[in-house]
Fold:
Amino acid sequence: MKTIKFYEKLLNEIEADIEIVIVVAKNFDQRFCDAEKELLQEAGFSGDQDETCLLAERRKLFVGADSIKSADIRSAAANAVRALEGKGYRIAKMGAYMNHPSCTATLRAQAEGLLLGGYRFEKYKSKHSDKHLHKVRISLEEYNGFALDIPAAQRAVDKAIVSAEATNFVRDIVNTAPDDCIPETMAEIARDLTRQHKLGVEILGPEEMEREGMNALLAVARASRHEPRLIHLSYTPENPVATVSLVGKGLTYDSGGLSLKPADYMVTMKADKSGGSAVLGILKAVAELHLPVEVHGFVGAVENMIGGDAYKPDDVLRAKNGKTIEVRNTDAEGRLVLADVLCYAQEKVRADYLFDMATLTGACVVGVGQYTTGVMGFAPEPAQRVLYAANTLAGEMATKLDFNRFLRKTLKSEIADICNISNTRYGGAITAGMFLGEFIDEHHRERWAHLDIAGPAFVEHPWGENPHGASGAGVRTIVRLLEKLARGDEHK
Ligand code: BES
Ligand code: ZN
Ligand code: ZN
Structure:
């Protein structure tokens, strides 16, 4: 599914092959489905969230939503598009859905859902079907009968297109096989973005990194035949209201290194570049939205492999900020890469907010489940901004994980300043976050939040508006957070 468009027309004035109707809260007497009530009941359609029913003769597809809230409508819209996949309909139309007369949040979610649900990853398929939905046309006819503010509705749809396309852009990068997306590929994607958008880019290779003293990152990268890259993308509008730095873990493959992963755990580790890929997607969206916020994206693109040149457990590494790290497990590589990239980012940019995104720990997935991001930091405010943007605005799930001084002690090393793993089996997401905290300087301490996206970044089945595989986790959350900052809203 490629395009959606908002039309200043009534539904029956819009041409389409099929109409999509969302049945909200099992209300079969609503304006869009009155006539089909009995047919739907006969077909056994109960209107449960995401349940679909195609009445081909009536040229209507029905999909259930538990409520008219954004998250339910986004998911329902995505499932409607998925249900039409392969059926041969090319153009669909639907009404607009709004929660309140003057609030376009649900409409934006509806439009996002359509584009997110229409995502397909077919790069490696030799046969392509052409039976895809191409367009959805949204009418000004509104579910509740609200009169639409046309420019506001148009803006909501335009923003939805930007955030959904950025998410799908990230999904493509993450789904790409690890030998087709190496660190230099990520650098090339960043350079490419600067050709189409008002963005600056700087790429560091191993020599520059050596000069910068990024020995932790370089150690992780050493056994790979692919050189590492540090990507710095920048979006610098005039008179920005704030400056935000984003740091992403871009492990194009994580074999575990010499502390090799078991076979079953290695599969899907192409997705270890999800944080870095999200950073690239967010910069693309920010440039397209022309937000009055200065945004810097830093990606540590590295491959963690085995070989005669591999770094090893027992090695001691000196990170960019001079701290020494005792390596006890080469599979805890993300934090080593991020340690150096965080130091670099803070040295380059004195930011109002610093967010890092990483598929950092399996422990986070165990702790909060595979659909939820773990958010950590020293101060509550940056984390709360992330939680609000995720759970309330973007329809992504995020939850806070608290640091504590007892877990900090489990990272102590007898021979270096810190160990790269803790000495306890418990609280692994938090100890990883606290390890990163050791590389946050005084200025950024209260301005930093860490997002562990190990769960939601890549899930091997469809869920809500997300497909099998890469979800683009974190993109919509941070885009919403930046939009809110741009409006100058205080955080509540
Ligand atoms: N990339 C992994 C974390 C991960 C696990 C992401 C599962 C997505 C799904 C990370 O580099 C890693 O291997 N972490 C180790 C840390 C451990 C050695 C302390 C882990 O979680 O097992
Ligand atoms: Zn690892
Ligand atoms: Zn990793």
Summary: The first strand starts at residue 3 and ends at 7. Residues 87 and 291 are 39 Å apart (CA to CA). The chain has two domains: 3-135, 167-486.
